[in-house]
Write the structure tokens for this entry.
Amino acid sequence: MPRRALTLVASGFSRPMALGVLIVLMSMPGEAQYSKKTLVAHRGASAYAPEHTLVAYQLAIKQGADFVEQDLAVTKDGVLICLHDASLERTTNVEELFPGRVSTQTIEGKTRKAWLANDFTLAEIKTLDAGSWFDQKFAGERVPTFDEAIAVIRGKAGIFPELKTPEIYAGRDVKFEEMVAAALDKNGLRGPKADVKTPVILQTFGQPSARKLAQIKIGVPVVLLLGSAEGFATADAVKAWKGVVQGFGPAKQIVLKNPDFVKWAHAEGMTVTPYTFRASDPGTFKDVTAEMSHYLYTLGVDAVFTDNPDKFPRK
Ligand code: G3P
Ligand code: CA
């Protein structure tokens, strides 16, 4: 009997019923990742607590997140940490504590002064305050390691790590994809004995990184993020990624402008998880709940990334 069906038996289903439920789940678009409309807490409950801190992750779980997102970076001494930006200055007091460690970097096509996370050891990063920039009441929050994030979330929600700015690491001989695979192994989150209560979905904007994950047989679903529709304006372009990734994470406007994108992906058994839904900017909708509802139940996307997990519309 498949492991997923055995899990259903353990949850109280009879064996025939469990197999039936499994067949229904398997026939749903995007079955590889989701069995229902799914809430991904973007950087944790980041509307209410400083992004990528343990307190933001804990609040996301409290607010009902199915998955909690981490953006991953790599320290100078080779540790995976949770940080959205490639550099530390927006969300920590690195500028104050390490004024002399600034350098000029070209990040995502823009050249600027930056305190690149990859130039700092974990011990140095752990001295930084990652909460005060958001609100003084969060003073003293730290940048978590990926392992610390997993420890807080495991068993309560899935994790949805993004391999952030992989191009930086490609130029520095850091094997980012292999490091993520090793972290999942160390934490028992992939392979035949993976923890079923802590599903994992990886995501990246980096097309070479997505291909690398497929090449190393990462064994968990991978979502390719799309900042624009360029290169993804036809059903054939979407189909070309079948077997490489298991879903797409488009900027939400891509789906709004072209609802067929969802049909194209579903026709190939791939999921659609648009980003980012924020109460502070619901666009032309009356509020963010109405906005997410339109995407989930009218346009048919499978899941959403939101800063406001408490506003997610469950039917
Ligand atoms: O990962 C989905 C979404 O988070 C992509 O945007 O910039 O918030 O990582 P960003
Ligand atoms: Ca992200």
Q: What stands out?
A: Residues 126 and 142 are 6 Å apart (CA to CA). The mean pLDDT is 92. The longest strand covers residues 67-74. The chain is about 30% helix and 15% strand.
